[in-house]
Design goal:
Elements (H helix, E strand, L loop, with lengths): L1 H20 L6 E2 L6 H8 L3 E4 L6 H16 L4 E7 L2 E13 L4 E4 L2 E4 L1 E2 L12 H37 L10 H7 L16 H8 L3 E7 L18 E6 L10 E7 L22 E6 L7 E5 L5 E4 L3 H4 E6 L5 E7 L8 H12 L2 E3 L6 E3 L4 H24 L12 H25 L6 H29 L6 H7 L8
Parallel strand pairs: 1-12, 4-7
Antiparallel strand pairs: 2-13, 3-4, 4-8, 5-6, 8-15, 9-14, 10-13, 10-15, 11-12, 11-14, 16-17
Helix pairs in contact: 3-4, 4-6, 8-9, 8-10, 9-10, 9-11
């Protein structure tokens, strides 16, 4: 319910913004514009850019080879996501790689990590090439963690200096210098700086996963047009990244497979951004006063979104003409999104189930409404947030590793026991021995959760039959364990 309310609020804001614009378009700046650097410094300073020549060449080679390997192994998949109650296939194909047992949820779709090589975990990859690709991305993850810590430290130092020193910063820096050296600049409007301790820096930069993206624009039949500024084709629409640790840094490594046959336009002859080149677009959220930014992305460029930028601003990805990969490193909120969490929830629910030592008959320890409610909520969570999410994506993870199969089998075993617990509740509430008031309270909360379960099962059945799924995707999606399809 909270998510749907949030979606309605965003839709109303978008509608209001478009109504205010009418047929007009908001202004935006590119590096070719004279005021570009000044706008970046004053309104977008928590976006940090690192040009490719600042990154070790060995790391470039490893990471770019890993992208190509994963594409050759057919490891990238379009996701079926839900927006405003409707199912859509994403134009971008993705794969999630990260800590074993981590997941990442966006637009009602939960992705499961292909685990990168981690000490203490037995991870069997389908072939050595996939192992090497995951290892390379873990190396990139470590590098970006260090860069993010440096960027936050630089930001803190600059804010401290800004308080003590009112010296005007040289405004005549070249664009290249601003891109590579502006990492520590903070917003002019920033308040008093409070130094961060090492723990806070670590919490906001310890990436537990990366969401890899791939798209070849020339293979797309249709790309959505950017609606506010007239920036052209979008690969990813305007958004805030979801389900992250608050104020954590998002780090993105971009690799566009630039072809010599695709020439960039002459900047002097071009108004706006070059449509042949990939860009990241930024705007202040729901603001029609501040111009947007469109920043070109080339092979091996990196950008970081610091602090609260992901909350106060929105970003999009503007398509060029060449195929492009990106590795987007995140500190995903793990409070409800790890295997450890959901196994703990299952064990909590099963504490209400007991077995008679003589007859081995199963029964419930308590029929209190609060206990029944907790168990049935976990029942729904394990089915719709984990089992159905995993099996809907079918065999895609088996292209890389079988690591998730054992945990999923364990979760299904717990789910079966919770199905028995639901039957036991139904059996018990039919009996007359209970106090009527307690019985009615139990029935009331129990029926609400059963209705929710029935509704969600219908929605999942409809999603499996979604017209946009290819025969291959549909075949994989229907590959659910037969016990609960």
């Amino acid at each position: 319910m909270k998510r749907r309310a949030g979606e309605r609020e965003k839709e109303l804001k978008k509608k209001k913004l478009l109504e205010e614009l009418g047929e007009n378009r908001l202004p935006y700046l590119t590096p070719a514009d004279a005021d570009f650097h000044q706008l970046w410094k004053t309104k977008y300073s928590k976006l940090i850019f690192r040009k490719s020549d600042t990154v070790p060449e060995e790391l470039h080679q490893m990471v770019q080879e890993s992208f190509l390997t994963l594409r050759e192994q057919n490891c990238f998949f379009q996701d079926l996501v839900r927006i405003k109650g409707k199912d859509f296939l994403t134009p971008v194909s993705r794969i999630l790689i990260g800590n074993p047992g981590c997941t990442y949820k966006y637009l009602n779709t939960r992705l499961f990590t292909v685990p990168w090589p981690t000490e203490g975990y037995d991870i069997k990859y389908c072939n050595p090439q996939i192992h090497d690709a995951c290892k390379a991305l873990m190396r990139l993850n470590d590098y970006l963690h260090i860069e993010a810590v440096k960027a936050l430290q630089g930001q803190n130092l600059f804010e401290t200096k800004e308080i003590k020193d009112t010296t005007v910063i040289d405004r005549e820096q070249s664009f290249a210098t601003s891109l590579t050296e502006q990492g520590s600049v903070s917003e002019v409007q920033s308040g008093v700086c409070v130094p961060e301790d090492d723990r806070s820096l670590k919490n906001r930069t310890s990436y537990n996963l990366t969401l890899l993206n791939y798209m070849d624009p020339l293979q797309m039949l249709y790309l959505k047009q950017e609606p506010y500024f007239g920036m052209g084709n979008m690969a990813v629409s305007w958004h805030h990244d979801e389900n992250l640790v608050e104020r954590s840094v998002v780090a993105v490594y971009s690799y566009s497979c630039e072809d010599s046959a695709i020439e960039e336009c002459n900047e002097q002859e071009l108004k706006g951004r070059d449509p042949a080149v990939w860009h990241v677009g930024l705007k202040v959220a729901w603001d029609i006063e501040t111009p947007g930014l469109a920043i070109p992305l080339h092979q091996g460029d990196i950008y970081l979104m610091l602090d609260d930028l992901n909350m106060t601003h929105q970003h999009c990805v503007l398509a060029g003409l060449s195929p492009r990969f990106s590795s987007t490193h995140r500190v995903a909120d793990s409070s409800r999104g790890t295997l450890e969490y959901i196994l703990g929830q299952c064990e909590l629910a099963l504490q209400n189930l007991q077995t008679d030592s003589d007859s081995m008959a199963l029964s419930l320890k308590s029929l209190e409404a609060a206990v029944v409610k907790q168990v049935e909520e976990i029942h729904n969570e394990v089915e719709f947030e984990w089992l159905r999410q995993f099996w809907f994506q079918g065999k895609r993870y088996l292209k890389c590793t079988d690591w998730w199969l054992k945990p999923m089998a364990k979760l299904e075993e717990f789910w079966r026991k919770m199905e028995i617990m639901t039957s036991l509740v139904l059996s018990e509430v039919r009996k007359e021995q209970q106090i009527e008031e307690q019985r009615n309270e139990t029935i009331s909360c129990f029926l609400l959760l059963l209705k929710e379960r029935q509704k969600l099962r219908k929605e999942w059945t409809a999603s499996v039959m979604y017209d946009g799924l290819s025969a291959q995707d549909a075949g994989a999606a229907i590959n659910h364990p037969p016990t609960w399809v």
